[in-house]
Amino acid sequence: MHSRKPFYILVALLFIAGISTSIYRGLEHNIPFLPGEQVHSWAIDAKVSFNGHSQPAEADFTLPNDPAFDILVENASSPGYGLNITDVDGQRRAVWSIRDADGPQSLYYRVTLVPTGNLTIKQSEQPVIDEPYQWPVTERSAAKQIVDEVWAISASNASFAQQLMAMINDVNQSQNMSLLLASNSPTDLFVRMLNSKSIPARIVNGLELEDQRRRQQLHQLVQVYQEGEWLLFDVNNNRQGRSDTTLLWESNGNSVLDVVGGTNSQVNFSMLQDTRPALSTSIDMMMNAQDDWDFSLYQLPLEEQSLFKGILLIPIGVLVVVFLRVIIGIKTSGTFMPVLIALAFIQTTLLTGLIGFLLIVACGLMIRSYLSSLNLLLISRISAVIIVVIFIIGFFTLISFKLGLSEGLTITFFPMIILAWTIERMSILWEEEGPKQVFISGGGSLFVATLAYLAMSSALVQHWVFNFLGIHLVILSVVLVMGQYTGYRLTELKRFQPLAGDK
Amino acid sequence: MKFAWPWELRRNGVMNMNQRNISYIGRYNPRKFYKRVDDKLVTKQLALANDIAVPDLIGVVNEQHQIESIPAMVENRSGFVIKPAKGSGGKGILVITKVENGCYYKPNGHEVTHSEIYRHVSNILSGLFSLGGKPDVGIVEGLIEFDPVFDGFSYEGVPDIRLIIFKGFPVMGMLRCSTAASDGKANLHQGAVGVGLDIATGKSLHAVQFDLPVLEHPDTQFELSKIQVPNWETLLHTASSAYEMCELGYLGTDMVLDKNRGPLLLELNARPGLAIQIANGKGIIPRLKHIEAMTGPSMSITERVAYAKKHFSSTPRF
After folding, report:
1. Residue A170 is assigned to a structural domain of this protein
2. What is the pLDDT of residues A116-135, one digit of tens each?
3. At B95, phi and psi to the nearest 5?
4. Quick one: which of B205, B267, B202 has its CA closest to B235?
5. Under CATH, to which class is B56-142 assigned?
6. Cα(B53)–Cα(B214) distance, rounded to whole angstroms?
7. What CATH superfamily classification does B6-36+148-311 receive?
8. DSSP designation for A163
9. Is B9 an 8 Å CB contact of chain A?
10. Among A35, A266, A471, B143, which is least packed, fewest CB within 10 Å?
11. What would the pLDDT profile of B225-270 be if each residue is shown by its tens digit?
12. What ipTM was assigned to the predicted interfaces of this complex?
């Protein structure tokens, strides 16, 4: 007997590969693990407006770039303008241009964003520090005093920033602080003081997302670098850290909007929260990404997709059949006939399917008993049964249509060849072993088909087999392992019960 | 509904279907030798070549048009049997025990017309009874004149003796007696009575019908505890020699006792059923393990039979 080790290694590999690709797919492509999951998305309209003076104008607008949000759809509308979207060092900008702009101009940019939950902003290399700010003579000593004071009671970039922010927002301000705040905005002062101690810090523009808000403005936030990560400080509101409703629209320290050839330029935002299915959101994201190595069935044409939705259910049905035969020991007529019947049940629904199946088989058996007395060769008898089955299906479809029973029309989904063979087998069984065996084997088949149907029609199963192809490797490994099962079947525990006693 | 615990069955060495398929059939029966037992015509020819006694071969029907020649084949015979060469589970066997004025009669006295015989053989040829529906041939055999020692132990049919031959050793045996419930067939799941036989003596050990213990034949009321199979030594010898003939390690042999010719090999089975354990009231695994654990030089048929008689005897459980 050769070693079974390679076999178990193979099974373990299949199992691990199946599980890990499924988890990878769930986490990397944000495919939800449960069907029907919803995600929030934000629809944000940015309106850029300025006054034109009958001369060429160009508006250069920063587009959002934040790892906490993925762009689902974006579009810019601006009648009469040329639009160019550029990507410089990872910062995307929209540039609208027109030869002759006159009077108030409005440009719109609309984006739908999906939160990713990825709120930290990483940067592994030490950022370049700006030249320290040259304080005016009047402020120099005041600034130095405050910086030294805070430096003494802090230990790191983060704690320095925290202490400094607390001091800026302190109600009982020192005279030094009042002096500095008279000529510097709190945010500017914060960044300048950090820079004077060679701590990387920069001003970014954030947008607070709130449902159904209009005419919102960007506000300034400060990012402070600490050990590979940018921490966010809202100096005006004395708040550290970021919430998942803060969108960093611009975070490279550049201007948000540059207008050449126009005056009085401004940008304001309106936003709307929306819920949409998590799955279709992820699919749209994947389609945007256009990854050549993405083996997703959603890349197929719709018709093939729906075909695969059915085909990929077969492994589940097969698994049920293997389990019921190997572990439970239920007898069926035809090994995988129940799976095909269960596939038909998915189209017809269970009750209609059961009634339809029984009607067809019962009629078929009656006609088959006549054929059996005709002394036909096997091949032509089976062929005759197939044709008769088609007649029966046609007949029942017509009857149910006339009676207005729309459920009856789905009877055409039954696989006719399989039905013909089922009728043939049952008829022979009837002749040789009597009706009891026919009911046992027919009932067993229907029972297995029903269980397979229940497994295959579960929304969770349908979601998994189509979206996580790795699950099929898991099924394969389970089927292989069951092929090694040498234990008792459940029905054998009953059958051999007389042999169980002590001797 | 009473269920046994798996460990109780395992402790008593009861073999189950999955274990039979994987650990015995899969391991000891090479697929290439299956033809020797699945095709009864091949079995018969091999048996004749190896001097193993089998029922007479009257003729073979290979083609539809040869069906017409059956009446000529069976002329001057009091009875005959038509069976498919590749039939399974006793399917498609037609037994004619009386031929009178050109009319054929089944054991239960019903007449079988020519056209029914024609249809039956036609069904055999088109593969209705063969595994997987493959085209088949029909075998016409002489009727076995079964030994009157079993009179009363079987109803409308010949009792046959099933022996499990493992690597050439007879390990377990049973007598299968047909009943009214089994319609003259000797299959246990159809209601035949299975009588476990002592390998050492050929005496009955235990009897079951529908997996439940019985003491007497349900139709004839004969006491099943009194059965003693005659010619037991020859029978074991014949069955064991089938191992050399077909080279299958885990083999079921079906034998019948003919009044004049003694034990005849009826057919071989590469996938013998598990019911023999119920008929014996005993699990088969300990005996199979015993033989698997044996080392030493290979034994002759006589030595194997003697070894099995010594080690696999049991006490009756009536």
Report:
1. no
2. 877 788 877 777 777 778 88
3. -110, 125
4. B202
5. alpha beta
6. 32
7. ATP-grasp fold, B domain (3.30.470.20)
8. H
9. yes
10. A266
11. 888 888 888 899 899 999 988 889 999 999 988 888 888 898 888 8
12. 0.78
